[in-house]
Amino acid sequence: MNAKARAARQPDAETRASADDHDALRLWLRLFATTSLIESRVRRLLQERFQTTLPRFDLMAQLYRAPDGLSMGELSRRMMVSGGNVTGITDALERDGLVQRVPDPEDRRVFRVRLTPAGRRSFRAMATEHERWIVGICGGLGAAESRQLAALLGRLKAQVRDSEEDGR
Amino acid sequence: MNAKARAARQPDAETRASADDHDALRLWLRLFATTSLIESRVRRLLQERFQTTLPRFDLMAQLYRAPDGLSMGELSRRMMVSGGNVTGITDALERDGLVQRVPDPEDRRVFRVRLTPAGRRSFRAMATEHERWIVGICGGLGAAESRQLAALLGRLKAQVRDSEEDGR
DNA sequence: TTTAAATAATTCAGGAATGAAATAATTCGG
DNA sequence: CCGAATTATTTCATTCCTGAATTATTTAAA
């Protein structure tokens, strides 16, 4: 049974949160549930249509926006994942001929990773469909509500970063 | 380098999204980035303070709210993860004496999983701190904004579920 | 300049997560 | 009642991801 089938007929954790849960907790559960729902849908679509995965797609997206390529460390920071993870994903994409490691002439410790021409073609095709999916999934919210939601999320994200320094 | 250190000094994917990205896509990237940020913080705190993980905590939370225990399948649906995954997490928690598999007398295919007394104690302690963390992380948003954000997320979640049926 | 510290990338062990296949038990149509 | 389909759980191969250790290179300090 896949996530879609489960999600279709069962309330998730957030939906069942008891009434006396505090506001912050309810907000977090709802945020998490909503994101998980969209994320698993995107993963499934990427798999079905392109036999690829979200991390592969994400790495290619980073490279697509950086035509000169990025170092492994830069990729790690941008994707917010560990360096070891980037090594693995890059290995896989390189095996498939979608990206290429190029030694940096300035610094022999670093590899610059670039999309190959096949990688660029492949990413363009995926990105077009991907955006259609997202519009289909999130576009139902009106423009006004979308903007408001994005704004509130922006404020929340800033809060989260702030809360790192002090108390926690 | 961990996610916290990376996040602290580098804009993430959402922050860098180019201005001409469409609304829906921006919304999704921001939703994803915000959730990832909070999630990795919670994972880190669970690890640091209780040497446990989010999936273990989640499974125990489900059981805490269901004093009669839940079947593996019920856990799988509520946690929105695959059955194989639930088997693994349950195995680990059972090894640690926090949960217990009880054969169902009505149906010999099913196991009911319950928290042991030690599991209940352990979960109570974790839940108290967990809620403090979440309030510290998300509570900075005022009550009004929190409610508004939760409401918008609720609408988005409904949209997402709806978009499953039709085109996409 | 030589050594020490810092940085870039990789490797590795271990926990998650998936989907598919296998096993076992139940239910249902005839 | 019997066999087929369904349901519950586990197992397995694969991918992802982390944090720690390792190797190689660069930078900085003495």
Write the topology of this structure.
2 copies of one chain form a homodimer.
Chain A: H1 3-9, H2 13-16, H3 23-50, H4 54-64, E1 70-71, H5 72-79, H6 83-95, E2 99-103, E3 111-115, H7 117-138, H8 143-165
Antiparallel strand pairs in A: 1-3, 2-3
Helix pairs in contact in A: 3-7, 4-7, 5-6
Chain B binds a DNA duplex (30 and 30 nucleotides) through residues 1-3, 43, 53-55, 71-73, 76, 81-89, 92, 107-111.
Describe the structure.
Chain A is globular and about 55 Å long. The first copy, chain A, has helices at 3-9, 13-16, 23-50, 54-64, 72-79, 83-95, 117-138, 143-165, and strands at 70-71, 99-103, 111-115. In chain A, a hairpin with a 7-residue loop joins strand 2 (99-103) and strand 3 (111-115). The first copy, chain A, has a three-stranded antiparallel β-sheet. In chain A, helix 3 (23-50) packs across helix 7, helix 4 crosses helix 7 and helix 5 crosses helix 6. The model of chain A is unreliable at 1-11 (pLDDT under 50). Chain A is mostly helical and 168 residues long. In chain A, 36% of the residues are buried. Chain A is built from eight helices and three strands; from the N terminus they run ααααβααββαα. At the A-B interface, helix 1, helix 2, helix 3, helix 4 and helix 5 of A face helix 1, helix 2, helix 3, helix 4 and helix 5 of B.
